[in-house]
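Hello,

Our lab assistant flagged a job as stuck in the queue for most of the afternoon. It eventually completed. Since we weren't sure the result was trustworthy after the delay, we are filing this so someone can double-check. Below is the sequence as submitted and the structure that was eventually returned. Let us know if re-running is recommended.
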Amino acid sequence: MTFLEKNQLPYQGILVSFVFLMLLPGLVEGHFWANRFFDLSLFSILIFGAYAAKAKKKRFILLIGLALVAAGLRGFLWFGGEPSLGLAYLIVVGLFLIIVLAEMARYVFGSNKIDANIIYGSLCIYFFFGFLFGVIYMLLAAINGSSFSFPLEIIAGPGGDEITQNLKTFFYFSFVTQTTLGYGDITPVSPLAKNLSILQAITGQMYIAILVARLIGLYLVQKKES
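-- returned structure --
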């Protein structure tokens, strides 16, 4: 029996941290602590994510290592590190998210029963998928500045607190795209940005449809067996 099957804390920690990530920075926007709350909430999501994935020992150690490296890089950027560290930070976070998503998907879709952990895990996959695309979009914008069109007031530089401000912007765009809301304030311009946006929107909707069908199927099987 894995840690996930015995304890719901990692998944609950991810969900609570996600709520803090979405709400706290906005409540104190413009204050010194706004970006700090965002970064700390994101770091707690990474740590809880490593425990929630609970992969084999070597992969678990790799996840914890990536989370600590990301925290270290972000710390350097707080104190005015080189802008190139911002790209390294995004790559490390992106790699972490890919590994966690793979491990969570293996657990959720490999289970033959439905319980609270499966529900929590399914929600976390959806959120981590949105985080991953937010990081991808930000990397794309850093490489090609004309990949997206957005209001001038939300354009920020590549280093320091600007990386947090940019992450907020692209997490917002990512979840608006994933939920197919499409407000239109930020729009993809380059072909790659457009294609990634389409891919995310389609995958996000397909995930919900497949997940609901699977959960209902598992529930009916369990009900029949009991």
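-- support follow-up --
The delay was a queue issue, not a problem with the job. The result is valid. The radius of gyration is 18 Å. The longest helix spans residues 191-225.
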